[in-house]
Amino acid sequence: YKLFSKTEKSLVSFIVPTFLLIIVFTNCVCTMLDMIMGHHHEALGLHYVMFLPTLYSQCDREQSKKWLPLATSFQALGTYAQTELGHGTHLRGLETTATYDPSTQEFVLNSPTITSIKWWPGALGKTSNHAVVLAQLYTQGKCHGLHAFIVQLRDMDTHIPLPGIDVGDIGPKFGFSEVDNGFLKLDNVRIPRENMLMKYAKVEPDGSYLKPPSAKLTYGTMVFIRSLIVGQSAFSLAKACTIAIRYSTVRHQSEIRSGEPEPQILDYQTQQYKLFPLLATAYAFTFVGQYMSQIYHRITGDINQGDFNELPELHALSAGLKAFTTWTTNSGIEVCRMSCGGHGYSCSSALPDIYAEFTPTCTYEGENTVMMLQTARYLLKSYKQAKAGQQLSGIVSYLNEMEQRQVQAHPASARPTVVDINDLSNLVECYKQRAATLVDLAARSIQQELQKRRSQEDAWNNSAIDLVRASDAHCHFVVVKLFTEKLSEIGDTAIHAVVSNLALLYALHGITQSSGDFLQVGCMLQISVRIKELLCQLRPNAVALVDAFDFHDKKLKSVLGRYDGNVYENLFDWARRSPLNVFVDENYFKKHVFSGNELFRPDL
Amino acid sequence: YKLFSKTEKSLVSFIVPTFLLIIVFTNCVCTMLDMIMGHHHEALGLHYVMFLPTLYSQCDREQSKKWLPLATSFQALGTYAQTELGHGTHLRGLETTATYDPSTQEFVLNSPTITSIKWWPGALGKTSNHAVVLAQLYTQGKCHGLHAFIVQLRDMDTHIPLPGIDVGDIGPKFGFSEVDNGFLKLDNVRIPRENMLMKYAKVEPDGSYLKPPSAKLTYGTMVFIRSLIVGQSAFSLAKACTIAIRYSTVRHQSEIRSGEPEPQILDYQTQQYKLFPLLATAYAFTFVGQYMSQIYHRITGDINQGDFNELPELHALSAGLKAFTTWTTNSGIEVCRMSCGGHGYSCSSALPDIYAEFTPTCTYEGENTVMMLQTARYLLKSYKQAKAGQQLSGIVSYLNEMEQRQVQAHPASARPTVVDINDLSNLVECYKQRAATLVDLAARSIQQELQKRRSQEDAWNNSAIDLVRASDAHCHFVVVKLFTEKLSEIGDTAIHAVVSNLALLYALHGITQSSGDFLQVGCMLQISVRIKELLCQLRPNAVALVDAFDFHDKKLKSVLGRYDGNVYENLFDWARRSPLNVFVDENYFKKHVFSGNELFRPDL
Fold first, then answer.
1. What is the DSSP letter of A582?
2. How crowded is residue B564: how many other Cβ atoms within 10 Å of its Cβ?
3. Is A203 within 8 Å of A298 (Cβ atoms)?
4. What count of CB pairs under 8 Å joins A to B?
5. Nearest Cα residue in chain B from A166
């Protein structure tokens, strides 16, 4: 590999802490489990990630005394059963019921319909003997919405399902094949009143209901998990880039100049154009993930002081960025895989696994389109406040500037057309203007719908495409802004130069990908020429930039992405060790295949 | 489902023949095998698709007499060994050697390096006892390039590999898990002179070499296979759309208007915006696939008459369209999968398999970027001819128009800015202008590079991004043109109206996706509003439009995409039948998991 010579080491030292932070946050549980328990952590993943934390945060004192010792000693193995066959992101639609019976002081749990069967919870199919079940609480003839209940599923000794519990595996999936995602059908399952998690809401022995003190408390967890997913995006994309870029210096193919040896495929402009913008994206998302966890921890401090001011902005931002980063990473991993040619399809590249493991993030913890629309709701609310003359603070404050600018009649024509495309602050400004324009467009679309006498809800749905575009532009602006701000923290000038080029490539490439939007706000120049120059400038440091992610070969698990570049010999070696290549009885073929001509039987 | 009422049946009758044609071409071999041999055709797929056809087309009379009976009786089970560990699309780079030894009248085959090991051929790992091996032919001290040799790999009786043959499976892959893709290392393997396929090129007993009569003969097969892949794209995308659109009418979620029941998710504008452009694309690619096979068969007739005139255009078009349609379909399938929410990840949706089986088309039979550059080479050649005043015919003739138009100084400003966005011929014109502009831009980029005194080859590589963009625009223009032309064949006015809306959506959506390009050629108006109207107009017929693809439930193999819409019950049923849910020894858990506490051992 070409190395980053003197500056590499300091680049590593700059990136590594950033990355460690991400790793700590995104993979904390997995890494912990990896260390403690080897590779078979999946079946117990939900016990650590959802069951235990729920007990810790929602048990009252009595409940903690009973359940925590059982759970931490693994006598009670648990999972978290929320989604149902017919219901996912829209929580209010869940159908499972928990009806209080004061005569026995028990809750009676039921799955009243096919669509109400719990579906997807990990570790439910085979592993768990308990679950936290989310159900609509009915007491004294009234429904009080979703609450959490501890339900024992299986005998703690024999592991046989208890009466009324129909539980099993939901069958094979794309990715996560190791996890026993399960179903759970409840038929008049009775649990003691004390099994409702009662730290906040309560049901008294007589059946009277006490409301929780605040509804905002659940926001924090969602924000936390979504910010972890942003970090996970950076992490997965960095892995994929590491493999593809390293392998692109090992693989030689075709010819650029006739008669000369086959060049490294990373010397092809098209290959650089596939991979370098993704590399820049991996860096960008790393910084965004870092920012998200910092701000989360700062705001958590505020929340503990009773200050909820910044929570709505963070909540909206985490939703949009979760969608923005997972979508980009999802398609980016596949670009990396396909950029490795045929060998990218081999599991030896690790890329198929990286994709299959990553892709569910686009759906879980909030389906991406729904997430984008959540962010849009916040943007539109802020837009209205700005229109009403309110001074906005935080990231959406640009909506105020737009308001001021609109005093001029035609902002687009009045704006200077000369944009210095090498000045990142100029580009941040372009992204900001684009975001403001698209928020404005979405708001106008809703306005037009309302003028056609549509209801508020229909106007919203009929403008949903524009709303998603506005959220996307907002998130893109935030990412470019954070990447740019990060540069000021880099002291070493050589590293600063390289990372600045990455930031520039990220910003300019994004502009060309949505060139229509940017043309409308007046910035689009010789960008494509500049992008080609940047590809050339980044080429010598490309491998160093992925080495700086500092993935150990054991973590990367990729023959194509090996640090030492010794790909082909190890690929041959890896294939030889495949189970299909271990000793085969020499008479196997004759005995089992040719005898009776089974191979050609029509309905084998 | 909402049905297409009266017109549905005639829509089916219009689409079905089109689709049957595609199916016949794309799945001919698979379907045949399906019928003859049940589902276990994969291991013999290569025998039918590559080994037998190669024998038929490249054996001389003597060889046919010997090999065809062996192969058709399945005594010789064969595959086609071309790609190597270090070499794929660039055929000239292959390293396997076949050196003629006149003293024994044998060829000696060798894998001289690690990178020369044959890698990826299907059915090589375990199934085949013979292979057609592509190798560099050396005789009388000279290399004559790649030729095909029949090499026996295994004993035909015991199936044990012969001396000098190191053969095995290459290990797990993304998709194609049933196929034993293999490796083959040759160590001084001697085969008789008669095992070189000698219909065209020959080696005489004394070692003298006779050249084949024409090099163009191999073009035909490549064109044929690539046009099949275009049809396969249509087929796979149609399947994915059928599943996603049907399921989107079964799934209810959230609320549009508060208090009303949860709507079908297909009523959300964002869901329509994900799926309807893909539905339109599936129709578009169906017509393109149909066109490709028609033109292939017409030109094949010409070739048999010795007329090679149209072959270069078809060759260039098939390369670009192969890349264009497979890339679009590849990402489209994933959009369909994710549009089904969580259940899209379940194998019960069939979408994970559709993706894993389809995605290799982006790489095999010519890596897509290389394909795009092949088309670009033809476009640039045509562009130069047009510049030189030559009158072009066929699909590239628009490059002549551009030449004429450039007599005006500023074509963009001279063009009328009012484009009727409901007139498809107008939109075809926009796509044509965009293609012409991007071909021109790529040519100028090369020119500028040459002016910087770069070599022709470097100028080409330094303009590769522009060249790929030009090819992409050319292909997009061809697809819009063919879709538009197809409309004139539809007699029924109701069907014409619906399919016209699909064509319009395809064209307009494409414009918004590359809005920068289209703004530069002067056409971009109230397109996004029109797209939203089209989504509404297509909504009532969406299910009918996928039903018209006429996939039988047995072919679709998707619980989510069932024709009868009875999804949830069948999903529960499907899960129950999963191997993990069949009878489990009630003491299993206690005996094997808890005893010895294996579950928690660190390095299980």
1. S
2. 10
3. no
4. 304
5. B576
pLDDT digits (tens, 9 = 90+) for A386-441: 999 999 988 999 999 876 665 443 444 445 456 788 999 999 999 999 999 999 99
For the segment B314-329, the average pLDDT, to the nearest whole number, is 96
Say which amino acid occupies A75.
Q
Chain A positions touching B40 (Cβ under 8 A) are 599, 604
Q: Do A462 and B364 touch (CB under 8 A)?
A: no
The one catalytic residue in A106, A365, A403, A429 is A365
* B122 annotated as ligand-binding: yes
At residue A385's C-alpha, the angle toward residues A382 and A388, to 5°, is 155
Write the CB contacts of A362 (distance below 8 Å, at least 6 apart in sequence).
A323, A326, A327, A330, A368, B338
pLDDT at B80 over 80: yes
Which pair of tokens denotes residue B265?
């998710």
Average pLDDT over residues A570-592: 77
Q: Does residue B15 surpass a pLDDT of 70?
A: no
Is residue B238 pLDDT above 90, yes or no? yes
Residue B322 has pLDDT above 90, yes or no: yes
- Beta-carbon contacts of A233 under 8 Å, excluding residues fewer than 6 positions away, are A285, A289, A325, A326, A328, A329, A358, A361
Whether residue B36 has pLDDT greater than 70: no
Which residue of B43, B464, B587 is in closest CB contact with A268? B464
Both tokens assigned to A174: 């794309």
Give CA–CA dist A329/A233, Å, rounded: 6
Q: Write out the two tokens for B380.
A: 């640039």
Above 80 in pLDDT, residue A318? yes
The answer to whether A122 is annotated as binding is yes
Neighbouring residues of A141: CB distance < 8 A, sequence distance ≥ 6: none
Residue A8 has pLDDT above 50, yes or no: no
ipTM value, please give it: 0.89
Residue B307 C-alpha, separation from nearest chain A C-alpha, in angstroms? 31
CA distance A274 to A289: 23
- DSSP secondary structure of B260-293: SPPPBGGGSHHHHHHHHHHHHHHHHHHHHHHHHH
- Cβ contacts (< 8 Å) between A466 and chain B: which residues? 528
CA A378 to chain CA centroid, Å, is 20
Q: Specify the pTM.
A: 0.90
Q: Does the structure show a pLDDT above 90 at A245? A: yes
Please tell me whether residue B75 adopts helix, strand or coil conformation. coil
Look up residue B116 and give its DSSP letter.
Answer: G
A194 is catalytic: no
What's the sign of the alpha-carbon dihedral B337, B341, B342, B347? negative
Coil, helix or strand at residue B6: helix
